[in-house]
Amino acid sequence: MNPKAVQDLVIIGGGAGGLVVASVAGQLGLKVTLIEKAAKLGGDCLHHGCIPSKTLIHTAKVAHEMRHAAAVGLPPGEPAVDMAAVNGRIREVIDHIQQHDDPERFRGYGCDVVFGGARFVDAHHVEVGGRVIAGRRFVIATGSRPFVPPLPGLEETGYLTNLDLFSLPELPKRLAVLGGGPIGLEMGQAFARLGSQVTILQRGEHLLPREEPELADALRVCLEQEG
Whole-angstrom Cα distance, residue 202 to residue 207? Predict the structure, then answer.
């Protein structure tokens, strides 16, 4: 390898993890290449995870508080939920944060930002869209993908994952959530507060199987009281 043509660090994946590494390494003066397969930086957290889910949860909380406004001396009201407007708000929040994940920001740190799918040619080279990039060290920060359980009939019935849950054209009348972990519960509660009839299906004896049973049981009571 020509030492002058070799990057100190090649980062595959422009999500939360990859962006932090690129930012720090670039500002420390390392020669960095950041590779992202999608059209925009930000990864799962910005586009399909943390940001859209927490925005949806906040909207659902406001809807819940509107129904129970009498508790603070205000007249209660039933919110008219328009999923197009809810999704529009989610998109606004994503677009606002996307400004901070602009490729030019990272180029300003000295990083080479490349868009496209990467594949290893050998231990020190990756290829992206016909371009071969040499690196001394590599960080693989490619994120995750939804796990679809092998349940009989699921493919035929159809299902939602985090990739399409935040762009529904209308509020589901009924929604079954497979899994009673933290994400399943927060999404189930959010859609119930927006007006869906939600059923949470948990394989084990308790919700939140990694937590104390007493805590999980108390949370189950709260969720059931909300409907």
Answer: 7
Name the token pair of 21.
């590494």
Non-local CB neighbours of 193 within 8 Å, separated by 6+ positions? 60, 61, 63, 64, 226
**CATH number of the domain located at residue range(s) 7-42+101-140 in this protein:** 3.50.50.60
Is the Cβ–Cβ distance between 190 and 56 less than 8 Å?
yes
pTM of the model as a whole: 0.87
Q: Which of 161, 151, 192 is nearest to 175 (CA)?
A: 192
What does the pLDDT look like over 53-79, one tens digit per residue? 999 999 999 999 999 999 999 999 999
Q: How many CB atoms lie within 10 A of CB 193?
A: 24
* Angle made by CA atoms 204, 187, 156, in degrees to the nearest 5: 75
Ranges of each domain in the chain: 7-42+101-140, 46-95+146-226
As a dihedral over the C-alpha atoms of residue 210, residue 211, residue 216, residue 222, rounded to 10 degrees, the angle is: -110
Tokens of 198: 């939600």
CATH class of 46-95+146-226: alpha beta
Helix (H, G, I), strand (E, B) or coil at 106: helix
Q: How many angstroms separate the CA atoms of 27 and 42, rounded?
A: 19
Give residue-wise pLDDT tens across range 125-183.
999 999 999 999 999 999 888 989 899 999 998 899 999 999 999 999 999 999 999 99
